[in-house]
Amino acid sequence: MTSRMITLALRAGFVIVLVSIAVGVGMDSPLVLIADAILPSPTFPATHTPTLTLTPTLTLTPTQTATSTRTSTPTATITFTPLPTRTRTATPTPTINPNLRVARVPVLMYHAIGIPPPNADAIRLDLTVTPQAFEEQLSFLTYQGYHTVRAADLAEHLLNGAPLPDKPIVLTFDDGYADAYESAFPLLKKYNMTATFYVITQFIETKKSGYLSWDQVREMAAAGMEIGSHSLDHPDLRGKTIAYQNSQIAGSKQMIEARVPGVIVKTFCYPSGKYDGTTIAVLRLSGYLSAMSEIQGVRQTNETVFETRRVRIRGSYSLTDYAYWLNWFTNSGR
């Protein structure tokens, strides 16, 4: 209903306005006033305009507060590097051989006893002790209380426990020079001493000049001197075949025993001190008890009977030198 009335009023007002415009009436014209009366100004209900009230809402937005991260200042750390653990290697306890027999017996190595020829070279001079010097040495040994034994006696002691006298000493003579009979033998008998002579059988067999004869060898053996082998012809035995070494070692032994009745050859002397494992094996199989080496020393054992140590006596030694070296080796532990 209200909508209809409004519509009618709007139409009437529209007509009055048109008439007013046409006649040029003013605002004070009766027509306008009539229109105002007829059409009062529409009153629009007050529209409640919502007032935007900004109520501050405290929204706690998590603010990423810069956390003070405490950066630790690198502290010098002392790192102990472990030292390598020292492994104590146990010192092997020496195995004591209950059958070991040791004797400190000097074995002196001589070669020639005589006057060197005028044209003698350095080697011959070194190998030759004058008869006068030799007698002085024998006198010294007697004065010092030494008692001579043969090389075979020493071997029997080491291997079988055969007794030895106080302060035993062995005198050996290599090569079988003729002066062994002419100079050494008489002096040995004079001082009631024994010795061991190592002969080169082929040199005797062929009557080589400057060497012993079989008659001389037999006489010396009969007087208590030991006759040992120095091979057939003095070769270097190292690296030789068993057959070759057997002929030199066993062959020379058989020849001596055949030429000198009653003699059993028990000891050997390596030619120029040279030998190898085969040499020692052949010596054992041939029935020898020991062998003389050129290793310097006086410590003898039953385990080293085939490397018996000796002390070389040089032609240049004075009696003082002789006494010094004999004493030095005897007390050196070698």
Q: Indicate the radius of gyration in whole angstroms.
A: 66 Å
| Coarse shape | globular
Question: CATH homologous superfamily name of the largest domain?
Answer: Glycoside hydrolase/deacetylase
Distance between the termini: 154 Å
Structural domains: how many: 2
* Content-based structural category: alpha/beta
CATH class of the largest domain: Alpha Beta
Q: Helix count?
A: 11
Examine the coordinates and then state which fold CATH places here, giving the name of the CATH topology of the largest domain. TIM Barrel
**Which bin fits the share of residues in helices?**
25-40%
Chain-averaged pLDDT: 83
Catalogue the unreliable spans. 12-69
What pattern of helices and strands is seen along the backbone? HHEEEHEHEHEHEHHEHEHEEEH
Largest sheet: 8 strands, parallel
For the record, the CATH architecture of the largest domain stands as Alpha-Beta Barrel
Compute the number of strand runs. Answer: 12
Strand content: 5-15%
In short:
Helix content is 38%, strand content 14%. It is α/β, with parallel strands linked by helices. The protein has two domains: 2-38; 102-332, TIM Barrel (Alpha-Beta Barrel).
Structure description:
The protein has 2 domains: 37 residues; 231 residues, Glycoside hydrolase/deacetylase (TIM Barrel), CATH 3.20.20. Helix content is 38%, strand content 14%. The protein contains 11 helices and 12 strands. Strands 2, 5, 6, 7, 8, 9, 10 and 12 form an 8-stranded parallel β-sheet that branches. Strands 1-11 form a two-stranded antiparallel ribbon. It has a two-stranded parallel ribbon with strand order 3-4. α1 runs antiparallel to α2, α4 runs parallel beside α6 and α9 packs across α10. It is globular, with a radius of gyration of 66 Å.
